Amino acid sequence: MQTQPPDIYTVLGWLDDKKNRQKVITVVTLIILAGVLYFYFDWRRTQGQISAGEALSSVLMAHSGTNATASALLKVADEHAGTEAAARALLAAASQQFIDGKMSDAQASFTRFTTDYSDSPLLAQAKYGLAVCIESQGKTADAITAYGEVANRFSDENTRMPARLALGRLY
Question: Rounded distance, CA 127 to CA 134, Å?
Fold first, then answer.
């Protein structure tokens, strides 16, 4: 024997009871509140991403035609930690430190990137930069290990092939 779903009059009769009506109002209020909170925090996260992007753009625009200073890029990375722009700023700062010949600072920045942004699509570039820093400091055995990780772990051809070439050169 099949049970019939309640008809509209049964539901309205159930809602006519004050206790049942209060339950429905409470549940609907909680659902609305959860939705408002979700959208508020999503909006805040989006605004943070926009603010970080604007900060990075202003640093890059202030130094157009020349290389942005590593300290200005690190400031963006620190002030907007956890955003995509902060990841890009940290990677750019590490690259600039390498260009400036500050190998230990560059290595520290690349290492920080690999720790703080381990799920970033730019991780292969950071690992490759770290390997280059290690090699430039004359640590051949450690560089071989670092290049090997890049060559074997990542499928990004922009870092995989240079890492393989570096491994061939170091062996």
Answer: 11
Q: What gap in Å lies between CA 143 and CA 131, rounded to an integer?
A: 5
CB contact burial 90-124 (16+ within 10 A = b; e otherwise): bbbbbbbbbeeebbebbbebbbbbeeebeebebbb
What does the pLDDT look like over 114-136, one tens digit per residue?
999 999 999 999 999 999 999 99
Rg of the chain's alpha carbons, rounded to an integer?
A: 27
Closest listed residue to residue 150, CA positions, set 167, 136, 138, 137: 167
Q: Give dist(CA 88, CA 96) in Å, integer.
A: 12
CA–CA separation, 42 vs 50, rounded Å?
A: 12
Orientation angle between helical segments 84-99 and 18-62, nearest 10 degrees: 20
Look up the pTM and report it.
0.71
